[in-house]
Amino acid sequence: MKHNGITTDTSSDISGKVVTRIAPSPTGSFHIGTARTALFNFLFARKHNGIFAVRFEDTDRERSDEKHEEEILSALHWLSLHPDTVTRQSERKEIHREYIARLLDSDHAYVSREPSKKDPSREVEVVRFRNTNPKVSFTDTVRSDITIDTSDLGDFVIARSTDDPLYNLAVVIDDAEMGVTHVLRGDDHIVNTPRQVLLIKALGISPPMYTHIPLIHSPSGGKLSKRKDAVSVLSFVEQGYLPEALINTIALLGWNPKDDREIFTLEELIELFSLEHIQKKEAIFDEKKLQWFNKQCIQRMPENRLRGEVVPALVKRFPVRSRLHPRSIQTILQTVRERGIVFSEVRESIHNGEYDFFFTAPDYPAALLLPKDSTKEQYSADQILTSLERTHALLKSVSAYRQWDEKHVQDAVWKYAEEQGKSRVLWPLRVALSGREKSPGPFVIAQAIGKKQTLMRVKKGVVRLRELSGSA
Ligand code: GLU
Q1: Other Cβ atoms closer than 10 A to 142
Q2: N or C: which end of the chain has fewer CB atoms below 10 A?
Q3: What is the domain-level CATH number for residue 33?
Q4: Ligand 1 center to residue 23 CA distance, Å?
């Protein structure tokens, strides 16, 4: 499809260098809407070997803050959406002045003295566009051809002064100066496009191809709100989500890969991305979807990266490395992977000692060894003492060298557990090994800590139960 000399991506033969950009205002935190716009711009630029630029719209000096610029850039890097160039609108004052002068000289704009909006008792000078009220047409990839009657716009203000353009003019100038070929931005900006097209025509510059991306709504309906919904990228980083999980989640916000794979790498997304598969309908951001992707990413993560995420926390908890038995580390990694536990939670659990039992015998209240039966009645210490003693004997018969693994340990006690009722046998065994109300299963722990430790801990459980039944 050709549009004003620019080809959209209906075919692979895009002529000339593709340049895309995001133009965030550094006035607040970086939220997923902007991250999604960044992703689409990045994918499109990379797909066509083009340039992906970041331009901070920092002309609102009072509200703009460098700390927000830093947050945006670090979030982009975290997501691996590395920009090719980073600029600030405020650095282009000289250029803006020249363009405003051009519009004034060609009589497309005029200086108007009028009462200030903020303080009507004061007169200000603004620059207004001389609107001849034409019908303007532009092509939007998502909504096809759009024609708008601009007479409602009147002579709109384009600059606060002869060197201080407002958003619509600044965007037009900066996009032209940067050679932006494709503008991909939120649907909320479609109302601005007719003004921008008028300015583009007046300045005789080549217009970009527009793609307005559908807005993001919350699952409860309505536009995603920065105040009500958890939407800041930083908060997802802090919660321990993985960048790949966020990328996969936002990629599907308004775009459909038309491919039945469930999870994509950034390279695969670059390959698949196409403007035509952007939908018109608003997209729904559901954190549950992010959680699901996060689990998938952990489950598929290469071993060395998983180690890198978890092991440093264990080393911090147990600085004496000899205590960190490799088998126990392996079991923890396996648990984290199977359950898809968010890394920040894993690290916090390690820090709080919830995994200590893998490396050191636990301490626990003896009563924790007593499970409840099917009628929710607690077994007596005597009953559990009998089953734990028997379990000890069964485990002792397993060979430490050739057989001590999850399967053989399970085989050794399984029949007895089935006869007696599983909770009666397996609960006290698990508590004796972990000292915790919740933990991985007893066979997994037994394999990790080895036969000697397992028997020692079970014996200790027996002693605790004897004390408990004696004192009862
Ligand atoms: N500052 C605008 C925004 O963040 C940029 C709009 C545009 O891309 O033209 O939404």
Answers
A1: 18
A2: C
A3: 3.40.50.620
A4: 5
**pLDDT at res. 224:** 79
The pLDDT value recorded for residue 222 is 81
The DSSP symbol for 216 reads E
Residues 16 and 56 in one domain: yes
Contact residues for 324 (Cβ-Cβ < 8 A; gap 6+) = 314, 315, 318, 359
Q: In the prediction, which pLDDT does 204 show?
A: 96
Q: Buried b vs exposed e over 11-50: b needs ≥16 C-beta within 10 Å?
A: eeebeeebbbbbbbbbeebbbbbbbbbbbbbbbbbbbbeb
Q: What is the pTM of this model?
A: 0.85
Q: Give 194 Cα–ligand 1 centroid separation in angstroms.
A: 15
Give residue 322's domain range. Answer: 303-358
Q: Tell me, yes or no, whether 328 and 377 share the same domain.
A: no
Give 346-405 as a DSSP string. HHHHHHTTTTGGGTS-----GGGG--B-TTSPBPPHHHHHHHHHHHHHHHHTS-TTTT-S
pLDDT of 300-342, one tens digit each?
A: 999 999 999 999 999 999 988 778 899 999 999 999 999 999 9
Q: How far is the CA of 87 from the centre of ligand 1 (A)?
A: 14
Q: CB–CB of 109/100 below 8 Å? A: yes
Structure token pair of residue 327: 């088998």
Residue 127 bridge partners (DSSP): 111, 159
Give the DSSP per-residue string, 291-334.
HHHHHHHHHH--HHHHHHHHHHHHHHH--SGGGS-HHHHHHHHH
Compute and round to an integer the Cα radius of gyration of the chain.
32
**Residue 291 forms part of a structural domain:** no
Residue ID of nearest Cα to ligand 1 atom 5: 23
Q: Which residues of the chain have pLDDT under 50?
A: 1-13
Q: Domains in the chain: how many in total?
A: 3
- 347 and 202 housed in the same domain: no
> Over the stretch 413-437, which tens digit does the pLDDT of each residue have?
999 999 999 999 999 999 999 999 9
Q: Which residue among 217, 241, 275 closes a domain? A: 217
In a domain, 226, yes or no: no
- Ligand 1 atom nearest 22 alpha carbon: 8
